[in-house]
Amino acid sequence: MSKLVNELKAFAFRGNLLDLAVAVILGLAFNAVIMALVDGILMQIVAALVGQPNFDDLAIDFNGTPVRYGLFLTALVTFFFVALALFFVIRAANRLLHPRGAPAEPPKTRECPYCYTPIAVLATRCSACTSEVEPVRA
After folding, report:
1. pTM for the complete prediction?
2. Are residues 72 and 40 in the same domain?
3. CATH code where residue 9 lies
4. CA dist 69 → 20, 57, 62 (Å)
5. Is residue 91 domain-shared with residue 129, that is, in the same domain?
6. Contacts of 119 (CB under 8 A, 6+ apart)
7. pLDDT, averaged in runs of 10, over the chain (138 residues)
8. Segment (H or E) for 13
């Protein structure tokens, strides 16, 4: 029984699983923020322009059966606004994390001068063709 418990602990608490759990929880929280922006602001702008916040009630009658194309229109508009909101939020985050004029990160690899395979900057031998190369010192 203790072997099973140890295996369960090893599975549940290894790094990748915890990283994934954190990513899922943050993704859900980020989804709530984006959906609040879309539903609370952007779709309300649609409501101000069109007179209603969604098109769910739009339908046509086809042989006595309502075809509710409004559901599709609402989903399409919501998708567009979610994509637009994500674009602007990610764009703003990238500008905060990587401001213009910030020094670029130095390259971690270079090409082997003999076989053109990517190798580490500090490598003294190519792993592909085994040629000796001079390391690049920063």
Report:
1. 0.57
2. yes
3. 1.10.1200
4. 37, 9, 12
5. no
6. 109, 110, 111, 112, 126, 127, 128, 133
7. 84 75 91 91 89 87 92 92 91 86 81 92 90 82
8. none
Q: Do 39 and 54 meet the contact criterion of CB atoms below 8 Å apart?
A: no
Half-sphere exposure of 119 (CA within 13 A, CB side): 22
DSSP 51: S
Domain boundaries, position 111:
105-138
CB atoms within 10 A of CB 60: 10
Q: Map residue 54 onto helix, strand or coil.
A: coil
The number of angstroms, rounded, from the C-alpha of 77 to the middle of its chain's C-alpha atoms is: 21
- The SS3 assignment for 36 reads helix
Same domain, 23 and 82: yes
Question: Based on the structure, what is the number of domains in the chain?
Answer: 2
Name the phi and psi angles at 105, rounded to 5. -70, 135
Least Cα distance to 131 among 116, 114, 119, 117 occurs for 114
**Same domain, residue pair 36 and 57:** yes
**Residue corresponding to tokens 């209603």:** 52
Residues 50 and 90 in one domain: yes
